Amino acid sequence: MKIKSNENTQPAGVGLVQKTLQILDLFQLVTPNWSQSEITQSTGMPKSTVNRLVKFLSDRGYLILLEGRNLYSLGPASIDLGRRASALFDFRGICQPMLEKLSRETGETVLLTSLVGSGNAVRCSDQIESTHEGLRVFEQLGSVFPLHAGAAPKAVLAFLPVEDRERYLSRPMAPVTKNTIIDAAVLNRELETTRKRGYAISKEETYEGVAGIGAPFFWTDGRPAGSLAIALPLYRASSQTIKRFGNLLINACGEVNSILSLQNVPLKVAS
């Protein structure tokens, strides 16, 4: 006897998992704190179900009750899960077609960076070296740069949420070369220009004789996850070339964002 399968039948417990994820999905940048009554109203779940699931998530550190307030926010377990997901996310696979296209279009070294777990630096995750004869620029895979030094890092720093950006700029910043901008006021003005333009520019900030152009791509919540960048010898970095490369990078990062949006990623640029 053959048994007809019912594809709409869910395994036991799936409904509970869906409800749990539905609660966690409420916590966004624009709505970071929720009371149990607000969760009940927004989800349409019974109060008893919300109470049970909130207690479950709180006991495991995924939610925390704010002191002195009847409001919950994401807890350390949620933050740790996000950081681990970020570290394991296959940006190299996603960005490879865009890197190859940029390499063909520019002939210069193209780079992929990702924001490291601490949020204060970026790591070089991938690159395609220049096809130019003679002097070429390349980077060591795995190299880490602070967010204030170079085009690829500054593209990320410029688009961080205001509070995170101000927190970074309030700390002492060490120079990588004599041309690294470490004055917070000067750097902040440059970051404002970067946001308006859509890409960052650097000249000899990490290596002498090297110029860079970088543009960011974004995580699910609109935070920058990393950047695509082009590095080239300074003597080839005319203003026209920089502008052309900057526009190419904006388009390439737009393609990355489009791929992420297909994975239910609501994209928005942090102010």
Question: Can you tag this structure with a few keywords?
Answer:
8 strands; 6-stranded antiparallel sheet; 2 domains; 42% helix; Arc Repressor Mutant, subunit A
Quick rundown:
The protein has 271 residues and is an alpha+beta fold. The protein has helices at 14-25, 36-43, 47-59, 76-88, 91-106, 151-158, 162-169, 184-197, 239-261; strands at residues 63-65, 72-74, 109-115, 121-128, 144-146, 200-203, 210-218, 224-233.
The helix content, as a percent range, equals 40-55%
Low-confidence residue ranges: 1-12, 264-271
Query: Remind me, CATH topology of the largest domain?
Result: Beta-Lactamase
For the biggest sheet, the summary is: 6 strands, antiparallel
Sketch the topology as an H/E string, one letter per element: HHHEEHHEEEHHHEEEH
Mean pLDDT: 84
Number of domains: 2
Main sheet strand line-up? 5-4-3-8-7-6
Radius of gyration: 22 Å
Q: Specify the CATH homologous superfamily of the largest domain.
A: GAF domain
Distance between the termini: 62 Å
What report would you give on this structure?
- With 271 residues, the chain is an alpha+beta fold.
- It folds into 2 domains: 14-82, Arc Repressor Mutant, subunit A, CATH 1.10.10.10; 89-261, GAF domain (Beta-Lactamase, 2-Layer Sandwich), CATH 3.30.450.40.
- It has helices spanning 14-25, 36-43, 47-59, 76-88, 91-106, 151-158, 162-169, 184-197, 239-261, and strands at residues 63-65, 72-74, 109-115, 121-128, 144-146, 200-203, 210-218, 224-233.
- Helix 2 crosses helix 3, helix 5 runs antiparallel to helix 9 (239-261) and helix 6 (151-158) packs across helix 8 (184-197).
- It is elongated, with a radius of gyration of 22 Å.
- The relative contact order is 0.11.
